[in-house]
Amino acid sequence: MQRRGWLRTIRADWLLYLFLLPGLLYFIVFKYLPMYGIIIAFQDYSPFKGISGSSFVGFKHFIRFFEDAEFITVFRNTLIISMYKLLFGFPVPIMLALMLNEVRKTWFKATAQTLFYIPHFFSWVIFGGIVIQVLSSKGMINSLISWFGGDPVLFMTQKQFFRAILVVSDIVKESGWSSIIYLAAIAGVNPSLYEAARMDGARKWHEIWHITLPSIRTTIVILFILQLGNILELGVQQVFMLYNPLVYEVGDIIDTYVYRVGLTEQKYSFATAVGLFQSTVGLILIYIANGLAKRLGGGGLW
């Protein structure tokens, strides 16, 4: 009976399931099937022998990673930079969406949105080059410092500035694009709630605090959980484009460490083991955050 009911549902909404099919195929082909390759994290993998011919070594590569002298440094840097991005970067798209939602001039709103969205479409190769030029000894920032009588600062080689540069550049590049989801959620808020609030004498700040934010709370919680799951996966492109040996101590993260030690030296099993470690930590954090969100009365992913 259950099978017949399931087939009947598919027949009734076959067009919706047809639209769903490309997304399912994408995740099956590019996300689930490659999971078979996780096996090489527990092998001394050789491309010439293949997965079936490579010898099994258990947790050898995991132990090597944890015992490496650089492990504490790269793990600490990854965690600190991720927490900075979460603390300072996560609220920015929400605030940006709230501000754009209050703009009443259509032409100005469209222009502002376009300007905020454009950086997202630049690769980190291009955007990183722009950041380096702006912060160079003869760049815009140092030109302003010199104009006010100060001495030029080599920002890209100073440890105390590097993490801030990573966080701020990421916010500038991605916050506009990330605000789209919040704008869509805000558009779904019932306008009658605002009208009732105005009749009661509520000001704009009260409308935002008591109507808009509670109405999009589920969206905020879901995106926060998803970002928390990627807390150890900062991505190699941004850091690789901006860092240099002078700031390795504060800028070297797990992804760049894997690229440097695992991939350039063709230690594929080691790189896979570290990637599996990152994914496992992210999965655990997602489960914990999802459980906490449900206990606190907010919506979760499941």
From TrEMBL:
Gene3D superfamilies: MetI-like (1.10.3720.10). PROSITE patterns: ABC_TM1. Its main location: membrane. Residues 75-289 form the ABC transmembrane type-1 domain. It is found in: Cell membrane; Membrane. SUPFAM superfamilies: MetI-like. The chain crosses the membrane at residues 12-33, 83-103, 115-135, 176-196, 208-232, 268-289. The keyword Transmembrane helix applies. It is a multi-pass membrane protein. Keywords: Membrane, Transmembrane, Transmembrane helix, Transport. It holds the Pfam family BPD_transp_1. The keyword Metal-binding does not apply. InterPro entries: MetI-like (IPR000515), MetI-like_sf (IPR035906). Belongs to the binding-protein-dependent transport system permease family. PANTHER family: POLYGALACTURONAN_RHAMNOGALACTURONAN TRANSPORT SYSTEM PERMEASE PROTEIN YTEP, PROTEIN LPLB. This is ABC transporter permease. The lineage of its organism: Bacteria, Bacillati, Bacillota, Bacilli, Bacillales.
